[in-house]
Structure formats: structure tokens, C-alpha cells
Amino acid sequence: MNNQDIRTYDAEARNLIVWAFIEDFLESDNREYLHQALKILNYEDEGSELLSNVRNAITTLEGKNHKWRKTARENTQKFEAAALENDKLKSASEKCDFFALAICNEAGELAGLHKKLWRGDNISQDEFLEKAKHEVADIYTYLLHYSDSLGFDLDQVAAEKAEIVSQRLADKEASHA
After folding, report:
1. Is the pTM of this model over 0.85?
2. Helix (H, G, I), strand (E, B) or coil at 38
3. Which of its termini does the chain have fewer beta carbons within 10 Å around, N or C?
């Protein structure tokens, strides 16, 4: 399908096509789908709130690598299956508890590394950074799973919180001016 063809479809059909490209992009991580969807959007009504939201979503997705999330979720499913065999993690509540405790554990491991560096133990800066990046990745992954288990999107909530803090700082600056 070329860009000329898409303009002959009604708005609902065009939106469905765009969403199909987005879904394909998420499944395949193929940038061509993303670029095709962007080209299609250029022919849409700029005033459409839905299309504005789609464009924003695509822009956000362009900067992310979702492949690691899929792998992390697959790994977690394997861990959950093993836990179920051992009569563990049978409820949503137990999963939330597990992820909360895992976040604390990984943060503790990161703090322990930092303490060793701070007090001058036998750990080089390079060794610290290598180990710390893995602990940070573990924390981030468990945060993702924890937010999933609670039913919210971590990236969306973090973006909303960043805007709240930004507004709070702007209000504070304005009150001191």
C-alpha cells in the first residue's frame, strides 16, 4: 500500500491501519513499520486528538527497545512456573509481595556495593560500575514487573510524575520571583 491509497480511506480505516503498523512494530521491533506509520500519519487531520496521541506514542516508542522487556517477562514467567511447582506465588498478592521484596533486595545489593567503594574496600571504580549497572538493571526490571502486577504502566506513571515535579518546581520558582 502506498501513501496515495491511504488517503482514500475513511478516518476510522486509516486509524486501524496505523494501529496495525504500531502493533507490528512492537512485535517485530522493525523500524520500517514505525516509519511507515509516521508517513501515514502525515496525511491525517492534525487536529485529531487520537492521532496526536498516536503520534506521541510512536515518538515515545521510537526511543525504546522493547525487546528486553519481552525477554524479561518471559524469564519471569519461567520463574513463576517454577515457583508454582513449589507451591509459591499462587496469588496476585504473593506476586506483588515477591516483586516488592526483590526490589528491596536488589537495592540492598547496590547499597552494599556503594558502601564497599565508599569505605575503600578492595573494589575498583570500574568493577563497581560493572556490578552496579547489573544491580540497577535488576531493580528496574523488578519495578517493571511490580508495576505490571499492580496494573499500571511504569513509563506512563514516571512521565506523569516528572510533569508533576516539573510543575511544582516552576510554581516554586514563580513564587520566589
Report:
1. no
2. helix
3. C
